[in-house]
Structures are given as C-alpha cells and as structure tokens.
C-alpha cells in the first residue's frame, strides 16, 4: 500500500513537472503548495503561465476546473465549464433571446474572492462574437468583436 502511494505521488509530480517544463515556466513552490492544501482529490494537474497569472488546469472528482493565481502567489479564482441548465434561474431566461440569433460557443462559471460568482457566455454567429458577463442582476455585454 505504501509503495502504491509513493508511486502515485511520484507520477503526479512527474506529470506536473513535465507540463511546466514543456511550457518553459516554473511555478513557485508556494503556489503549488497552496493548490495542494485547498484542492484535495485532484488529478491531471497541468500548469501554465502568462505574463499576468499562473493557471492550474485540473480534474477534481471527475470535473474539469481551472484555478488561477497572481504572480505574487495570491489566489485569484476558480472556473469551470457549465451547461445552460446549471445557470441561476434569473439568468436562464435572458439566454433564450440571444440564443435565437447565435449559438453558445462557451459558458463558464468564475468564482473569485473579489467579485463572488460570475458567469460568462460566448455567443457566435457568422459575423460576430459576443461575450456577456452575468451575475444576479442579469447579463451585461463584456466584449464584442467581428469574426474573421
């Protein structure tokens, strides 16, 4: 049993190290430690980094999620893809009108300490893409651009 546990831990470390090495970035140990303390029972952890944040893409109990940290190591938030029926009831009714003219390309939930829970939905049609941000008070246009 002990050998299996050690083998599992080594496999997870190698997966994480390999992913980080492939991107050419290193994630500070404090961030990895924070993730491991706050998110247990995770697998398939893959780290990536930008100029503004670190992102851990992971599987937690069969659900794909992304956890974000600032470069200073502070927690930004966590996101997950959701389906339309997982939206709060107040937001579902507003989706139907926009959906008549476009298809839903992406829908996710984002939870942060600063803003609480927000929802982002991306609609696409042949001409343009619109991204809306939703909270308890309805949807607001967040971004809009022409498709190329």
What this model shows, in words?
- Strand 2 and strand 3 (63-70) form a beta hairpin.
- The chain folds into two domains: 2-71, no CATH class; 84-146.
- It is built from three helices and eight strands; from the N terminus they run H-H-E-E-E-E-H-E-E-E-E.
- The chain has helices spanning 2-23, 29-38, 89-99; strands spanning 42-49, 53-60, 63-70, 75-81, 103-112, 116-124, 128-135, 138-146.
- The protein is elongated, with a radius of gyration of 18 Å.
- Helices cover 29% and strands 45% of the residues.
- The N and C termini lie far apart (55 Å).
- It has an eight-stranded antiparallel sheet with strand order 1-2-3-4-5-6-7-8.
- The model is unreliable at 1-23 (pLDDT under 50).
- The chain is an alpha+beta fold and 148 residues long.
How are the secondary structure elements laid out?
Layout: H1 2-23, H2 29-38, E1 42-49, E2 53-60, E3 63-70, E4 75-81, H3 89-99, E5 103-112, E6 116-124, E7 128-135, E8 138-146
Antiparallel strand pairs: 1-2, 2-3, 3-4, 4-5, 5-6, 6-7, 7-8
What labels describe this entry?
single chain, 148 residues, alpha+beta, 2 domains, eight-stranded antiparallel β-sheet, 3 helices, 8 strands, 45% strand
Could you write a compact summary of the structure shown?
This protein is 29% helix and 45% strand. By secondary structure, it is of the alpha+beta class.
Structural class: alpha+beta
Mean pLDDT: 83
State the share of residues found in helices, binned by percent. Answer: 25-40%
Largest sheet report = 8 strands, antiparallel
| Rg calc | 18 Å
Shape: elongated
Distance between the termini: 55 Å
The low-pLDDT segments are 1-23
Spatial order of the strands forming the largest sheet: 1-2-3-4-5-6-7-8
Q: What share of residues are in beta strands?
A: over 45%
User: What is the number of independent domains?
Assistant: 2
Number of strands: 8
Task: Work out the helix count.
Answer: 3
Order of helices and strands: HHEEEEHEEEE
């Amino acid at each position: 049993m002990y050998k299996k546990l050690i083998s599992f831990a080594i496999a997870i470390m190698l997966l994480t190290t390999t992913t980080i090495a492939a991107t050419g970035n290193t994630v500070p140990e404090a961030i990895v430690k924070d993730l491991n303390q706050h998110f247990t029972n995770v697998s398939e952890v893959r780290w990536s980094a930008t100029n503004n944040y670190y992102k851990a893409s992971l599987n937690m109990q069969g659900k794909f999620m992304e956890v974000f940290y600032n470069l200073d190591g502070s927690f930004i938030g966590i996101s997950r893809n959701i389906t339309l029926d997982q939206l709060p009831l107040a937001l579902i009714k507003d989706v139907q009108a926009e959906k008549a003219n476009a298809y839903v390309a992406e829908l996710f939930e984002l939870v942060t300490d600063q803003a609480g829970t927000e929802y982002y939905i991306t609609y696409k049609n042949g001409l343009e893409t619109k991204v809306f941000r939703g909270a308890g008070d309805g949807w607001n246009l967040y971004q809009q651009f022409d498709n190329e």
